[in-house]
Design brief:
Rossmann fold, 4-stranded antiparallel beta sheet, disordered C terminus
Length: 266
């Protein structure tokens, strides 16, 4: 799989995905967040964290063009995003695989919008299954797979569609901790594989250890209405160790941003 020239050419310093002055108000008039600025850069995994009900999943869907913001705009490589686009893929909290389809067929679904022959789609799907570590399991049905394997299929399907940005909403929340830990250790190399067109990813998670394992940058939402109360650049080598003193320092800082009484002002 090769990247098109249009996707390779990027203005130096230009964000991949950016949201500016974003706010969202529910039909009942409640503004859940306001004046939110977020951006991703090349080969960067960005995390968004905050208390429950703060609007993280809503913000993620605004970034994907699935929901319109009350104010502000989203741009992908400088172009305004006003509706869903194949260049931005979303992985939901629930592991979505179709039980009547094999792993290979599930991944091929991500290529339906592409003008490819069946042979080309099958070749691309096999390549993405290899990227996520499922080579040799192409003919298994979801009922024959573990939760971790099904989530890998969902990731492979998203990557097969050749997105520029991947949005992930609590992608490991339905996995047991051992399975989630194993997948987290591998996901960064999966996403930014040379076989993938991906340029950046955005993760929403309640698990702060998970966030520090994966993210290059973290946006912290808090308050009512919520705003970005902190932005952390995570400068830790990979693979990351939760017992590393610097890891613990970052973790403590995140908790401070998220604790109302001890909250840190930006």
């Amino acid at each position: 799989m090769t990247r098109s020239i249009a996707r390779i050419v990027t203005i130096v310093g230009q964000p991949i995905l950016e949201g500016r002055n974003l706010s969202y108000t529910y039909e009942n008039g409640y503004t859940v967040f306001t004046k939110v600025d977020v951006e991703t850069c090349e080969n960067e995994l960005v995390a968004i964290v905050g208390p429950s009900g703060i609007g993280k999943s809503t913000l993620l869907r605004i970034l994907g063009g699935f929901i319109k913001p009350a104010t502000g705009e989203v741009r992908l490589l400088g172009k305004k995003v006003e509706q869903p686009t194949p260049e931005i893929a979303l992985i939901h909290q629930s592991i979505v695989t179709f039980p009547w389809m094999t792993a290979l067929e599930n991944v091929m679904l991500g290529l339906r919008s592409k003008r490819k022959t069946r042979q080309e789609m099958e070749s691309a799907a096999r390549k993405m299954l290899e990227v996520v570590g499922l080579q040799g399991f192409e003919e298994l049905y979801p009922k024959e797979m573990s939760g971790g394997m099904r989530q890998r299929v969902a990731i492979a399907r998203a990557l097969a569609a050749e997105p520029i940005v991947l949005l992930m909403d609590e992608p490991f929340s339905h996995l047991d901790e051992l399975t989630a830990e194993g997948l987290r250790q591998e996901i960064y190399s999966m996403l930014f594989s040379t076989e993938s067109t991906l340029r950046s990813a955005v993760l929403v998670s309640h698990n702060l250890n998970e966030v520090l394992e994966l993210a290059d940058k973290v946006y912290v939402l808090n308050g009512s209405p919520a705003t970005v109360v902190g932005t952390l650049k995570i400068e830790l080598e990979r693979p990351r160790n939760s017992k590393d003193p610097r890891f613990v320092e970052y973790l403590d800082l995140l908790y401070k941003y998220l604790t109302p009484v001890r909250g840190v002002k930006q």
